[in-house]
Amino acid sequence: MMHTQGRTAGESPIALPPGAATTLPIEALSDLSTPWCVHAVKELDLARHMAHGGRTASDLAAAAGCNARILRIVLAHLARNGVFEETAPGRFALNDTARGLLDPSMRHRLGLDGLGEGFAEAWGTLLQLVRSGGAFQTDEETHSEFSGILDPLFSRTRIGAPPPEVPLVGGWEAVYTAVDVGGGTGEVLAGVLQAHTHLHGTLVDRPRVAAQASKMFEAAGVRSRAAIVGQSFFDPLPSGADVYLLCGVLNDWPDREAKAILCRCAEAARPLGRLVVLNSISAGDPPADVRVEALLLAGRRRTLVEFAGLAREARLIVAASTPYRNSLAVECAVA
């Protein structure tokens, strides 16, 4: 499962509103050198090496075990493009942009021996995607491979900063059980349980991801009210809960698989349970930006009309929709 907020790793660094004009030359818009230079300096951990002050390219090359002449060229190129600052000829320091490379998760997002390599390969398939609509990875096994890496990197919230109140018709007072389907490492469910102390929750996700949720629930002080079920959400789900949550899940999957997930939720929620879908449905037109999950995982964010069609096929009825962050929270009843 993928949980993303803000810009997704691997997304184009230039994001303009629809129809906005730009004076950037085509060479700048098609430049590959800058992103690859960013990958390289992250792989060499150069931000950490210069974290305590500016250093020369020679010093940095010695610390990182690389060629000083080529490194200076790379760093100078990045400095001209706003990453690092060349404080004197051949001497470089961190700026606000480069400090982002100190984030530990960037090692996985940008490193060329892991997720970064997958992103690079995926972007190379864009022409194929445009021509055929087919994706780089579509089967469940390879999808799980990528999303298993992405889950902890793109956590939907952080402990201490729970998600905004999840909207629910009639409120949460009469709700006693909730199941977070594809709940990842537990950020969203932990926030919901913190906000509603009478509530008991169950997190469902693949075993290797769900196993990480216990620490999250302990840190949030809700472990006694949180159960963890390690399984695929394509299999029958725990049944009989009052509310089922799908947060940032459906946008990871093409229509066939998204419908299958909705069918499992409807099956488990019968006869009186409800389903709430978050962070997957656009409030207006489909997003115009190109996101890496469309390449890696064949997913896409749907409009409310598109989602309602899938929901009907899964025997669900859209009962309410509410603005939620930059998308919609959509509540469904079982048909």
Give structural notes.
- By secondary structure, the chain is α/β, with parallel strands linked by helices.
- The chain has two domains: 26-113, Arc Repressor Mutant, subunit A, CATH 1.10.10; 177-334, Rossmann fold (3-Layer(aba) Sandwich), CATH 3.40.50.
- Helices cover 39% and strands 17% of the residues.
- It contains 16 helices and eleven strands.
- The strands form two sheets. Strands 4, 5, 6, 7, 8, 9, 10 and 11 form an eight-stranded mixed beta sheet that branches.
- The radius of gyration is 22 Å and the shape is elongated.
Element layout with pairings:
Elements: H1 26-29, H2 33-43, H3 46-49, E1 55-56, H4 57-64, H5 68-80, E2 85-88, E3 91-93, H6 96-99, H7 106-110, H8 115-123, H9 126-132, H10 140-153, E4 177-181, H11 187-195, E5 200-205, H12 207-210, H13 213-220, E6 226-230, E7 243-247, H14 255-269, E8 274-282, H15 292-296, E9 302-303, H16 304-313, E10 316-324, E11 327-334
Parallel strand pairs: 4-5, 4-7, 5-6, 7-8, 8-9
Antiparallel strand pairs: 1-3, 2-3, 8-11, 10-11
What is the CA–CA distance across the termini? 26 Å
What is the overall silhouette? elongated
**What is the N-to-C order of secondary-structure elements (H for helix, E for strand)?**
HHHEHHEEHHHHHEHEHHEEHEHEHEE
Per DSSP, what share of the residues sits in E-state strands of 2 or more residues?
Answer: 15-25%
- Proportion of residues in helical segments: 25-40%
Main sheet characteristics: 8 strands, mixed
Can you tell me the residue ranges where pLDDT is under 50 for at least 5 consecutive residues? 1-21, 152-162
Count of discrete alpha- or pi-helical segments spanning 4 or more residues: 16
**CA-based gyration radius:** 22 Å
Mean pLDDT: 81
CATH C-level of the largest domain: Alpha Beta
CATH topology of the largest domain: Rossmann fold
How many domains, in number, for the residues? 2
| CATH architecture descriptor of the largest domain | 3-Layer(aba) Sandwich
CATH superfamily of the largest domain: Vaccinia Virus protein VP39
Number of strands: 11
Structural class category: alpha/beta
